[in-house]
Amino acid sequence: MKFYIDPGTGSMLFAILIGIIGALNYLIRMAIVKVRFIAQGGKKVEANAGKLPYVIFSDHKRYWNVFEPICREFDKRGIDVVYMTASPDDPVLTCGYEHIKGEFIGEGNMAFAKLNFLNARVLLSTTPGLDVYQWKRSKDVDYYVHILHAAGEVSLYRMFGIDYYDSMLLSGEFQAKDVRRLEELRELPEKEIELVGITYMDEMVKRLQESGPVEAHERTVLLAPSWGPSAIFSKFGGDIIGSLLKTGYHVIVRPHPQSFDSEKDMLEGIMKEYPASEQLEWNRDVDNFEVLKRSDILISDFSGVTFDFALVYDKPIIYADTKFDKAPYDAWWLEGDVWTQTALPRIGMELTEDNMDNLKDMIDTCLEDPRFASGRDEVRSETWVHMGEATVRTVDYLVSKHEELLAKETVEVESAEVKADKKKQKKQVKEEA
Asked: Which residue among 5, 168, 326, 420 has its CA within the 20 to 30 Å range from the CA of 239?
């Protein structure tokens, strides 16, 4: 007989199990501290002797682009960091930084089980959902810090995704306003907010500057859809490639990697209908740097590459008309359009079924109309503060926070020692009397 446990019930059972184990773990640790205290003749035992100063947690190797500059800066300063990853092939495991200890802690619930009993002073992560489902706040972690992994909304996480972090490292004032509004609506204590910028985009700019100018080429259009029922190929099929070929421009098609697995039949059909030629190129490079650099305009949907292309490479976009449902996200709680919906019209034009036959005119307009260049400047200033400074600002903040927590801990320990000494003195007085 087989038993089925739905995901919600499974999550609840896992949370209960973790809670029980956590309580037992805490009791055992306190018992050990007391035994050591007695064994050492009543001398103070440091309960936090095994506390890690800094921990970075990444739920997937794709976030190495966010964390690598931070690790490099920590290493440069000679500060030890434990980097816990849920990817067995995460680049951190072979990065070679002397002061960065990469540790694979398992996938899924196995990783969260490890984190739920972590003993650390400061933990940094891009992962939302802390203390909502499987990932619980550990009693022995002093401070949880969230950092964004892309330009754009903080409110486009699934509901309650950031509620239980202690602080947020953001890249724009509009994000901070959304955080404060969510806290107000849910009657949550205010998190500490620090505007630091975007580490991986700073790195992209450096790489672009060091790579030299783009070679002369014919006008090139990059079609880079995401995947799923709301993505370009699901909405328009291969017809969009046919419309692009009619423009006479060179066309590069770069499907989302997940499409080759989840939408294999559909994608193979489109590739068969529109095979590679002198005008049409199918791109599957692991690193998208070169293809972004040599393209003049990007056509996409809700892919994260949209803002990378517009703000780092300073080029226009055409974005597909995809209906966005705010219901599952924190944005549902907020009035009005999300910031992304106000930003996209300033950096490009919207593609619909009605205007697909006018793609050539749209491409030419986006490339030649100066209002889109001005729009990119506006959007960049709103979502990417402190350009070029994100890594240093992030590490400065983490170091400062660690020193603050350590100082507070020292005061608390000294205060406890003073109380213990007074209690001991009173006891001695009574015994002498």
From this structure: 326
